[in-house]
Amino acid sequence: MGLGYTNPTYAAAVQPAIPVFTFVLAAFMGNEKVNLMKIGGQLKVGGTIVCVSGAILMVFFKGPSIFGEDVTELLHGAVAANDLIAGAQPEPAGGLISGLLGIGLTKFHIGMLCLIGNCFCMAVYLSFQAPLLLKYPASLSVTAYSYFFGAMFMVIAGISATDGNTVWTLTPSELVAVFYAGDNIFISNVGDSRAVLATASDDGTLVPVQLTMDFKPNLPQEAERILHCNGRVFCLDDEPGVHRVWLPAEEKPGLAMSRALGDLCVKDFGVISVPDDVCSGNSMSSAST
């Protein structure tokens, strides 16, 4: 939410505030001793004041553009890069966001508050973890509890920041995972996304090499499985050449790929989520499904 309402520059600039918040909390908790009579203590306090002042300044003041024509367009997502970031996550529309907007805050201010809140929560976690491990020296259990309650907090925050069930529904999704080790590239592919390797030719130019298969319903092995499960594969009149998967007796969903993580309605009719695993080396390439 903080990244979607601001931009990566602000998100990266706010993250160094985590040690500052940690120092302040540790000083209040007595874990950190501050002696203002020594240079070390004075530098700690001075650095804290500078960092906190900078964070507050970033929240309330958007400075002039150094590069580009208009910083306002960048902050409000008018450029394609920021549109891509904002579009990569659902738009929060819950009561919490509506209430903050109702008191006069802009989305930029909410985004900055979220980024600072993230730093503060991380500082709280670090401040409590140190004395806890001294009294309860079981690091694995502490880590397990931390992730459990962290996951519960994210679920609660997600429910409070969204309306309806649409954002929680698994939609058509494909996945390409690439792992590089030594001279080998291991790839796992579901859907019609594509992994491409750029190789150098003899004259120094880059040559693209396709490493994965696009799982389309018109592939013989894919179509055979779908038809065997009573699914249907055909093209629409206005989309010649675009084969889609359809339910046996309904004109839906019209899925243009034969393997997907979502689309539960056609899971019983031949659309599977089993990945295709590929290992590609210097001079060898093998694939198995």
Would you write up a description of this structure?
- The chain is of the alpha+beta class and 289 residues long.
- The protein is 44% helix and 15% strand.
- It contains ten helices and nine strands.
- It has helices spanning 2-5, 8-14, 17-29, 39-60, 71-75, 80-87, 95-102, 107-135, 139-160, 220-228; strands at 175-181, 184-190, 196-200, 206-210, 232-234, 244-246, 253-255, 276-280, 285-288.
- It has a four-stranded antiparallel beta sheet, with no helix packed on it. It has a three-stranded antiparallel beta sheet with strand order 5-6-7, covered by helices on one side. A two-stranded antiparallel sheet has the order 3-4.
- Helix 3 crosses helix 4 (39-60), helix 3 packs across helix 8 (107-135) and helix 4 packs antiparallel against helix 8 (107-135).
- The model is unreliable at 68-90 and 282-289 (pLDDT under 50).
Helix content: 40-55%
Sheet of most strands: 4 strands, antiparallel
- Describe the strand arrangement of the main beta sheet, using strand numbers: 1-2-8-9
Class computed from helices, strands and strand pairing:
alpha+beta
Shape: elongated
Integer-rounded radius of gyration? 26 Å
Give a count of the beta strands, DSSP E runs of length 2 or more: 9
The percent range for strand residues is 5-15%
Round the mean pLDDT to the nearest integer and report it. 76
Note the gap between the termini.
38 Å
What are the segments in which pLDDT stays under 50 over at least 5 consecutive residues?
68-90, 282-289
